[in-house]
Amino acid sequence: MRFDYSPFFRSTVGFDRLIDMLESASDQGYPPYNIERSDENNYRVTVAVAGFGEKDLTVDVKDRVLTIAGKREDEGARPNARPGAYLHQGIAGRAFERNFQLAEHVEVKGARLENGLLHVDLERVVPEEKKPRRIAINAPELKTIEGSKAA
Is 42 exposed, middle or buried (0-12, 13-18, 19+ CB in 10 A)? Predict the structure, then answer.
């Protein structure tokens, strides 16, 4: 049985339907990833991509969907591949594609590959006309009676 928890997460800044995204991603277990919130408007998606190089990875955004894909060259075709057979091959190198639904006004600021982890930085940029603003409350000015005459 699936429960819709999205009403509880409506105040989360940056991602609409966070639970739906996590549930759909749990169906795909490879590669593992983290979603971090560094402050009110900045996020980072970190994907474990050990064995993939910069040329093997693509990061695209289209229609508010962030797509991270990886496809390695064939091991035999790599120019610096060592001869011999694996006794155990535990590092997955299969092709993958991960999709993340982005909320409105979330922009990809950059991506970098570091120590087998792909970091994609996101920022929520809300236009001024969409930001909440406080309205001053004006009350009518009270008239005071000066002098010795009373009303």
Answer: middle
Which residue in this structure is represented by tokens 């996020």?
43
Does the reported pTM lie above 0.85?
Answer: no
The SS3 assignment for 114 reads strand
CA pair distance 85, 93, nearest whole angstrom: 16
In the chain the domains, ranked by start, together with CATH numbers, are: 6-76+90-127 (2.60.40.790)
pLDDT mean values, one per 10 residues, the chain (151 residues): 54 53 60 92 94 94 94 62 74 87 92 96 87 84 70 55
